[in-house]
Amino acid sequence: MDQKPFSQGLLSSEADSQRTLYPYVTGTSVVALKYKDGILMAADMGGSYGSTLRYKSVERMKSIGKHSLLGASGELSDFQEILRYLDELILYDNMWDDGNSLGPKEVHSYLTRVMYNRRNKFNPLWSSLVLGGVKNGEKYLGMVSMIGVHFEDNHVATGFGNHLARPILREEWHENLSFEDGVKLLEKCMRVLLYRDRSAVNKLQIAKITEEGVTVSQPYSLKTFWGFSAFSNPTVGAEGSW
Amino acid sequence: MDLNLNDEHSMGTTIIGVTYDGGVVLGADSRTSTGMYVANRASDKITQLTDNVYVCRSGSAADSQIVSDYVRYFLHQHTIQLGQPATVKVAANLVRLMAYNNKNMLQTGLIVGGWDKYEGGKIYGIPLGGTIVEQPFAIGGSGSSYLYGFFDQAWKEGMTKDEAEQLVVKAVSLAIARDGASGGVVRTVIVNADGVTRNFHPGDSLQLWHEELEPQNSLLDILNTASPEPMNF
């Protein structure tokens, strides 16, 4: 249990008790890439509470409107709040009933504004967001961090994925990946994250968004490989080492 | 050794909520501590929000009480306006709203459980920060650390009411055995279509765990029975 910050120190006054100081329940990496027909996104279903893997069935990717898919890592309560903001945004958009609908670019822009303005008030939404979508044939994939840094790219990752998945994606991603190759590439990234990220959980979902719409896969687990001869007897020749 | 007698009242706690086929069973220990001192050894941490929805409270006693008071107040008005009992989901979301919007000031983890005619028995966990997670079972409080492995092994789908209650009582009892911040009696509340049942399981009715001994009235009783005469069956 964390200590409550009774004395907040020099950086704040008594008046601003409204600032998120640290996350409690967090999701780990989200990885996404553009492929032939749209966007593929992967995230595991873990909600960590510090070092405890507390929740193992959390959906961290949700569809937004008709054209977008949002994945989030970081504080889960902030992700749930962002989903509520987006619900309202989409509702108001639908109420215009004018044949137009918000596309991924617009949703990404909205999220960027929300995250950046919260950051300016020293009360960030402690999340890293991945926003992907397809509208009128145009594929879009972007990211927003908790301080409002935002950009688009052909492949993105949050958290540990930045360090472990992006190098793989840089080497192996290419234009017009098939669905199968895209899924295999994402699974390669997710498997590495499973080996090397302490907060990873072996239960994941892969979501796909194309012009037709969003599909989020059922939860499933990846096989892992431990059959290296070096693994079975690593300290032979150097007893006591690891 | 500083007893920290002026620390805020904290319910170290073990709280549990379990769904079964037809309703939910909520369980909790009964210890409230102020630093190292046990301020209340028979607290009731399972608090009513409506006729059909209850909440298990953990963390700061004050924070959890005020949150449940506000939610009870809002739910009362909501029920009048709606004209029928509130659903568990609505109650849980009201708790979430309070927990999320005051996340900087509150230090309380809650488990909302109840029964309504639309969804049957439901359990919602609302940890620090105000995340809401619907689960078939939920554990919380400092004592819950000792129960993750236990539930991974012992929980199964489709339990009966009695199996669920026995599981809850066993679990709280195991947590009390190892968590200094949990203790006292095990209270359970069962909510289903037929209504609400409150049960009270005093410490001496629970089974003994590792390194625990059968409680005696006095050493003298032991000495008297350990006499040279052989035991007669």
From TrEMBL, chain A:
GO terms for cellular component: cytoplasm; nucleus; proteasome core complex, beta-subunit complex. It is found in: Cytoplasm; Nucleus. It comes from the Eukaryota. One of its GO terms (biological process) is proteolysis involved in protein catabolic process. InterPro entries: Ntn_hydrolases_N, Proteasome_alpha, Proteasome_beta4, Proteasome_bsu_CS, Proteasome_sua/b, Proteasome_suB-type. It holds the Pfam family Proteasome. Belongs to the peptidase T1B family. Component of the 20S core complex of the 26S proteasome. The 26S proteasome is composed of a core protease (CP), known as the 20S proteasome, capped at one or both ends by the 19S regulatory particle (RP/PA700). The 20S proteasome core is composed of 28 subunits that are arranged in four stacked rings, resulting in a barrel-shaped structure. The two end rings are each formed by seven alpha subunits, and the two central rings are each formed by seven beta subunits. The catalytic chamber with the active sites is on the inside of the barrel. Non-catalytic component of the proteasome. This is Proteasome subunit beta. It comes from Trapa natans. The lineage of its organism: Eukaryota, Viridiplantae, Streptophyta, Embryophyta, Tracheophyta.
From TrEMBL, chain B:
The keyword Phosphoprotein does not apply. GO terms for molecular function: threonine-type endopeptidase activity. It comes from the Eukaryota. One of its GO terms (biological process) is proteolysis involved in protein catabolic process. It is found in: Cytoplasm; Nucleus. Its main location: cytoplasm. The active site is at T13 (nucleophile). Belongs to the peptidase T1B family. The proteasome is a multicatalytic proteinase complex which is characterized by its ability to cleave peptides with Arg, Phe, Tyr, Leu, and Glu adjacent to the leaving group at neutral or slightly basic pH. The proteasome has an ATP-dependent proteolytic activity. Component of the proteasome, a multicatalytic proteinase complex which is characterized by its ability to cleave peptides with Arg, Phe, Tyr, Leu, and Glu adjacent to the leaving group at neutral or slightly basic pH. The proteasome has an ATP-dependent proteolytic activity. This is Proteasome subunit beta.
